[in-house]
Structure formats: C-alpha cells, structure tokens
Amino acid sequence: MIILFRFEKLFGGKFLGDIVRRVLLDLAQNGLLFDGKITDELKTVESITATDLSDIETNKSDDIFESLAKRLGYESFTSDDRNTISYVCAVVSIRGALMLAAILSNLIARIDRQEVTIAIDGSVYKYHPKFHTLITDFIRELLPTDCHKKF
C-alpha cells in the first residue's frame, strides 16, 4: 500500500499543484521566473493547487495568471513568466497522464480478456481539460499492437 500511495503522489490531484509549485520555485531560484524574486507564498506547500493547473490548461487568459501571481505575492508578471507557467503546467499534466497510462497499458496487456473497461475517478480526471485525452492517447501508444482491440 505504501508503494501505491507514493506513486499516487506523482500524479494525484492533491499533489499535482505542488509539483508545479516546486518547479516554479526552482525556476525562480535560478532567476528564470519572476526575475528571481521568491515570495513566502511561493515557498508555501500547496499554495498552487491542481485546480490552478486545470484552470491554466483550460483558459490561458491573463486573468487566470494575474490571479495566481497575486495569490503567490507577485504584483505583476511578464509574458515570459506567463509562458513559463503555462509550459510547466502542460508538462506536469503530460507527465502525470503518461505515468498513469504506463501502468494502465501494462495491466491491459496482461489481462486475458477480449475487451477491458477502465473506471477512473478523481478530481484531476474529472476537471482537467486534457487528462482523459492524454491518458487514452498514451495508452494506445504504449499498448502492444495486438492489444489495441481490447481498449
């Protein structure tokens, strides 16, 4: 059970936002984001949520970025900051979906049945605008060709 919990930390809704926060903190510490300025809010665990990540992936309007920047203690952000945050959210989303797809495609390949149905629940899967598509595309890519008819 401990192994599954640790694995869930790599893609679960409770943790995705904090993975984004940690990447953004590292970028800021290296002077690649927010002109190297680091706020207490950016250092605070869970100050970025999976909802923030989903909002950014859904709507790339300045309002979304402005709201996040203010919550993180920044008065303003540059277009480079905006593009960087957007890119980090996309990469973390892709990474999470790929990790799930790797496990699911392995399970599908091992199940000795003509068809397989997968039931998935959770806030990331329900509310992230791209997660379903990413997971299904990655599963098709990772499945051996002879297993495609199962999925």
From TrEMBL:
Keyword Kinase listed: yes
Hexokinase C-terminal domain segment(s): 6-149
Transferase is among the record's keywords: yes
Enzyme class at the top of the EC tree: transferase
Stored InterPro entries: ATPase_NBD, Hexokinase, Hexokinase_C
Pfam family, any one: Hexokinase_2
Pathway(s) served: Carbohydrate degradation; glycolysis; D-glyceraldehyde 3-phosphate and glycerone phosphate from D-glucose: step 1/4
GO-annotated molecular function: ATP binding; D-glucose binding; fructokinase activity; glucokinase activity
Ranges in coiled-coil conformation: none
PANTHER family in alphabetical order: HEXOKINASE, PHOSPHOTRANSFERASE
Protein name: Phosphotransferase
Organism: Oppiella nova
